[in-house]
């Protein structure tokens, strides 16, 4: 039994040594290889497709709403076309409620009144 334990120990030590040598070799190779700029590998046509344009100051704030309400406010509950005041009032009501009751209460609680106004204005113009 002692012989088997000794062989296992030697195998483990050898494996750890090989792993360490591999890590050292890879690390030195990575450090010597200069990074390839990603921007240079993207054509101007591809770049224009990947860069988003923010046309409204509330769009970035409203992006938190996009998963459920859609990017243009026509998701699960339509926000598009509602008045900005209506959206702001709903957000204020939700922010005053228990955050554990509904997911929207948590979201609404995170915004200031000015941010709610920007979100409301964004969706009202969709």
UniProtKB/TrEMBL annotation:
List, alphabetically, the InterPro entries matched: Cyt_c-like_dom_sf
Task: Identify the domain of life.
Answer: Bacteria
**Protein's name in the database:** Cytochrome c class I
């Amino acid at each position: 039994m002692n012989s088997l334990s000794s062989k296992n120990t030697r195998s483990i030590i050898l494996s750890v040594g090989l792993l360490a040598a591999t890590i050292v070799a890879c690390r030195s190779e990575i450090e010597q290889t200069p990074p390839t700029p990603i921007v240079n590998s993207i054509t101007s046509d591809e770049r224009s497709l990947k860069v988003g344009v923010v046309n409204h100051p509330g769009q970035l704030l409203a992006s938190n709403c996009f998963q459920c309400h859609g990017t243009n406010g026509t998701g699960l509950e339509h926000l598009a076309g509602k008045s900005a005041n209506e959206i702001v009032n709903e957000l204020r009501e939700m922010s005053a409620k228990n955050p554990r009751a509904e997911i929207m209460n948590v979201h609404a609680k995170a915004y200031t009144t000015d941010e709610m106004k920007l979100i409301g204005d964004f969706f009202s113009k969709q």
